[in-house]
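This follows on from our talk about sequence and fold. I would like you to pick a protein and set down its sequence and fold. Go ahead and set the record down below:
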Amino acid sequence: MTMSIAFQGAVEDAAKQRQADSVVKINDNELNEKNIVSNPTEINKQITKGVVRAKLNKRRHLVIPAAISPTYLDHLMPSIVTDLFQPQTVTYNGGIANIKKWSISCYLEVMESGIPCTNPHEGLKSHCLELLETCNKLFSSWYRQQHACNDETTSSYKLDAEGNPIVSRLMTFITRYTPAPDENALLKHVDGAGKVDGSVVVALPIDRWTASEEENSFEGYGGGLTFWDGRIQRSTDGTRGPEEIDYDTRSGDIAFIDRAVWHQANPITKGTRWALVIFYKVER
């Protein structure tokens, strides 16, 4: 597995941003949109540059390190891990990544038909609503640029006042991975069985509120995201397929994923790993 050079450079920039974030002091009433995004004046430039690089490599996903402020997520996370997170057991027809019963996610929003459950957690949704609305705007901006040269796609969707597609969240959930069997990963899959227009994954902080960071940290014990996307390559065993790309994601990193792109949440063997996932529909 390889990490793109562009992402490695972005990781270094993100590390500097996290260091700066760590000394920022903010009050509850200051946690508005400008605090959710790490660098509001640069995020659109980061998306634009990332999409250009992705298209040059025929990729339909983009990962931006520390796009969401780790400081903001540190404010959001304690209530999630100590109170609001209540995983629901759901059964997927045919299984998801070979797992038929999934019991490590708490659903904030579900599809109109009640899939995958009929009791979404309204309290958790309310707690995360500002973050969800911010993700809508970021996904919409990315989707417009990712599909800018696709006449069939761009001519059919509805636009907002800024010229970005209007998007709706189809499903939203927070997942807690542990080293336990069937809880340590979500192996190779496409989101929504390929029936959603795209998705977002936000890496959440290491849980430092229910135990020590040392106990709950998964760093050095797996994690991150892998994508199978981009130019077709020949592997060492002679088979051909898309490039395999590995990202060592950390708190605040955001992944934009186009329809039916194969990817996985990589296994961990220690600690806990948290992620927010949103499935999107582009209104037409």
